[in-house]
Amino acid sequence: VPPKTKLSIKIPANKKLVVKLSNARSITPSVSPADTEYINQVSQEIQRIFSCPGYDDGSLAPIILRLAWHCCATYDKTNGSGGSNGATMRFVPEITDEGNTGLDIARGALEPIKQKFPKITYSDLWTLAGKLAIEAMGGPTITWKAGRVDCRDAKFVPQSGNLPFGDKDAHHVRSTFERMGFNDQEMVALLGAHALGRCHKRFSGWEGKWTSNPIRFSNDFYQVLLNEEWSLGTVPETGREQYYNQDKSLIMLNTDLELVRDSKFLMWVKAYASDESLFFHDFANAFSKLLELGIERDENYQVMPKKNY
Predict the structure, then answer these.
(1) Which comes out higher in pLDDT, residue 63 or 301?
(2) Which of 124, 197, 255, 298 has the most CB atoms around its CB within 10 Å?
(3) Cβ contact 172:165 at 8 Å
(4) Oxidoreductase: is it a keyword of this entry (predicted)?
């Protein structure tokens, strides 16, 4: 149960921080979009936690980006469920969804900021942190607005299995993103974030990084996908199948290779591999859209909560 979960992570000073993850609902709606001073203070605190010598490539930014991505990617346009509003990852079964394994590290890193700045909701904190993570790694500026509301209990948790999964085919990729309201171009742009971070066998069963610099936002994912030769292999400890380049320094998942097997996806892979500025532009638009999925705002840009939130 999240309130009883103790988590030990490395922080920049190389000490250990033990926190309790919370599923408590924020007392009030989040900070107003107009309160830029408060938002700037929260942003400064978030930016301080990205550098983390004891974790992976020295940065928590990729896993914090993954938290923001996954808390939005549950959205279903057919019934309006899911999305970042509500911060439903505080509850089972979303917190235990196979695709969310390991995200307690990101949530734990952000928890002290939530305690220091109680006016911001978890749903705003996680999405703001994702925006800032992209920018801290050299990516484009992401449009973000405050005002999300945390739901009070697990009643609003979307069904499990909404997240894209790495061993599936092009049909799975397309249907998953279409459920959220994205077209092929937006799908391929968003998947370019695989330039960042790593797979961990202890979390997903896969192991390795997609690009040589997994803490720099770039179009490297597309270039590597097109230019390397990929061979199917297995992670010895887990039995998971993944693709390796010739010297086994980089990996791809099956869903990544599906982007070059599908002709409509391949068109955008080639476009982004040859034009990084185009990728940055399209990614910024698609990610900003992702952050707002399922959100309705009033005339003051405050999020309108669902009934009984």
Answers:
(1) 63
(2) 124
(3) yes
(4) yes
Mean pLDDT across the stretch 227-255? 97
Phi, psi of 47 (to 5 degrees): -60, -25
d(CA 60, CA 65) in angstroms, rounded, equals 9
Domain map (residue ranges) of the chain: 2-162, 170-286
The per-residue pLDDT for 54 is 83
Question: If one looks up domain 170-286 in CATH, what number appears?
Answer: 1.10.420.10
For residues 84 and 88, what is the distance between their CA atoms, to the nearest angstrom? 8
> Residue 204: which of 103, 81, 299 has the closest Cα?
103
pTM of the model: 0.91
Catalytic residues: 70, 210
What span, in angstroms and rounded, lies between the C-alpha atoms of 120 and 114?
7
Contact present, 67 and 88 (Cβ < 8 Å): no
Buried/exposed 23-35: b ≥16 CB within 10 Å, e otherwise: bebbeebbbebee
